């Protein structure tokens, strides 16, 4: 599952867990982006990587990859998938995305190459229609997952306003944000 994870939240974790169950996956690899070219003002990748490690540590089926964080330049999924394929030559690769990301996929770099590298799984997300958006069902599967109306943008804005993010993100991530003063945190009651 690729994402900017700024920060990772329970919407990401529930989506990953549902896909793992429904598609009988051995492992879900979370891949935090290095420099996402369609997003501005992103937190340093080491913070996003470490929050992802903290959030996934307790699940034996979840792992985190540094392939995007360690690659120079902008992050493109075509490179992510090539790097993962090199590291896992025998694996069947699936790329998990939310409905909003799938709406944009035709704008991604080397989109035609993507279908050769992985099968895509689009999960439902509140506020977005889950549809193939003109993509082929041969390359993309759709999956309804429990609806959690959480976004990283909302989490960042809440922290900046001094509102709690407990129960929106894992406890360790709440503590990591406070410890490193991410998102312009104002003092909050805990
Ligand atoms: N609540 C959610 N339910 C289902 N999928 C989600 C949810 N939140 C994010 N996703 C999906 O997870 C992937 C990574 O998301 P990302 O890290 O960009 O989080 P985000 O909440 O969309 O962030 P931001 O608000 O900063 O854009 C994307 O494919 C996105 O569609
Ligand atoms: O390859 C691309 O051109 C591309 C463009 C936008 C997003 N992506 C990937 O989509 C995933 C979700 O991205 P984001 O920005 O919504 O967190 C993440 O793995 C990104 O690298 C990929």
From TrEMBL:
Residues 1-158 form the Cytidyltransferase-like domain. Its EC number is 2.7.7.18. Catalyzes the reversible adenylation of nicotinate mononucleotide (NaMN) to nicotinic acid adenine dinucleotide (NaAD). Belongs to the NadD family. It is an enzyme of class 2 (transferase). One of its GO terms (biological process) is NAD+ biosynthetic process. This is Probable nicotinate-nucleotide adenylyltransferase. One of its GO terms (molecular function) is nicotinate-nucleotide adenylyltransferase activity. Pfam families: CTP_transf_like. It catalyses: nicotinate beta-D-ribonucleotide + ATP + H(+) = deamido-NAD(+) + diphosphate. Gene3D superfamilies: HUPs. Keywords: ATP-binding, NAD, Nucleotide-binding, Nucleotidyltransferase, Pyridine nucleotide biosynthesis, Transferase. It comes from the Bacteria. The keyword Nucleotidyltransferase applies. Pathway: Cofactor biosynthesis; NAD(+) biosynthesis; deamido-NAD(+) from nicotinate D-ribonucleotide: step 1/1.
